[in-house]
Design a protein that fits this description.
- The protein folds into 2 domains: 58-114, no CATH class; 119-337, no CATH class.
- Strands 4-3-7 form a 3-stranded antiparallel sheet, with no helix packed on it. Strands 1-2 form a two-stranded antiparallel sheet. A two-stranded antiparallel sheet has the order 5-6.
- It contains 9 helices and 7 strands.
- With 341 residues, the protein is mainly alpha-helical.
- Strand 1 (41-46) and strand 2 (52-56) form a beta hairpin.
């Protein structure tokens, strides 16, 4: 953990120092937002002469007028235009690739479909590959040794899998838990791996703020929502559209309330994960920035101690948020599949 905190301060601190020296004034808010936002390139370091060393990711765009275009994001770096596209630097479309008309203005009516490989996409794919390799190794281990005393990767993964089964799935879903275990395990490990990868600032693909991207948490919450609705039995839908014990004249009020409740649950899942992970990254970066805001080395020991403390706390949050998302998903599904009493 000390090494992690030291790496964090070293990587971000060097970049902050070089930006301050090159631009003459340090803007903490811009620096922080740049690092938690998604982007089309992976910043490695800034040289003393001000040049950036970056990994430029593939841009994949589709529009009705131009068809499919694939090229390196380096073509759009530093505000450049390429094939009628550019990365918008301000306004509601800031950071997004937009179409530019002949007058040089943004054509908001013909925005391209962006399927680019951004930092978040690379981070998600990397987490998926890591998870796949872990479970394939676990499968091979079981095939060789069978059900025996866990060793190697078994001793690490088996307790976590049993925890998800015995403390999340079975208490909420009862005898129906096996049907939903693949999704619950996938959600738990996907969130956990991405959370842990986000705590390590270097090298790529580490450092991507995947679970702090609201589009990612939206899709995951939508998966829970769809599984819940498609698993709903007659009792579940009866409680929504004809709640037992509710007077008939009250149903026109209760039905809209119940329908709102259907969407408020996944919305809470989406916001909880997004807000907690993003807040943690912002606090760590803010503590590092204090050294350069006050421009004094006397602040450094205090800042470093708080960064180390926050790294420990973020490690706890990484596991906690994976647990909470999985637990609430199991709880919502159980509300849809419970038997009529």
């Amino acid at each position: 953990m000390l090494l992690l905190a030291g790496t964090t301060i070293s990587v971000f601190g060097q970049e902050v120092k070089e930006k301050t020296e090159s631009e003459g004034k340090f803007d903490a808010s811009t620096f922080i937002l740049d690092h938690i936002a998604d982007s089309h390139e992976w910043h490695i370091l800034t040289k003393k002469n001000g040049d950036n060393v970056e990994i430029y990711l593939p841009v994949i765009l589709y529009s009705k007028e131009k068809g499919l275009d694939i090229f390196s994001s380096k073509k759009l770096a530093d505000g450049n235009e390429y094939k009628g596209y550019k990365i918008e630097e301000e306004g509601d479309l800031q950071g997004k690739i937009v179409s530019v008309n002949k007058e040089g203005t943004v054509d908001e009516k013909n925005l391209p479909l962006d399927l680019s490989m951004t930092k978040a996409v690379i981070g998600m794919l990397s987490a998926a590959i890591i998870g796949l390799l872990l479970f394939l190794s676990l499968s091979r281990s079981y095939r060789k040794s069978g059900i025996s005393h866990p060793k190697g990767i078994q001793s690490f993964l088996e307790p976590v899998i049993l925890f998800v089964r015995d403390d999340i799935a079975i208490p909420n879903l009862g005898h129906k838990y096996e049907k939903y275990m693949p999704y619950l395990l996938t959600a738990f490990f996907f969130i956990l791996i991405n959370n842990l990868m986000g705590l390590i600032p270097f090298p790529p693909p580490f450092g991507a703020n995947v679970t702090g991207n609201i589009a990612v948490t939206f899709v995951m919450a939508t998966c829970t929502f769809l599984i819940t609705q498609f698993s709903g039995n007659k009792t579940y839908w009866k409680h929504i559209f004809a709640a037992p014990g509710v007077p008939f004249w009250l149903l026109p009020i209760m039905i809209p309330v119940e329908i709102i409740g259907l969407f408020s649950k996944p919305f809470a899942l989406m916001i909880r994960l997004f807000a907690n992970i993003t807040a943690g990254h912002i606090i760590v970066l803010s503590l590092i920035c204090l050294i350069f805001i006050f421009n004094s080395l006397s602040i450094a020991p205090v800042s470093i101690l708080f960064v180390i403390f926050m790294d420990f706390l973020e490690l706890l949050v990484a596991f906690l948020q994976a647990y909470i998302f999985t637990l609430l998903s199991a709880l919502f599904i159980s509300m849809a599949v419970q038997e009529n009493h």
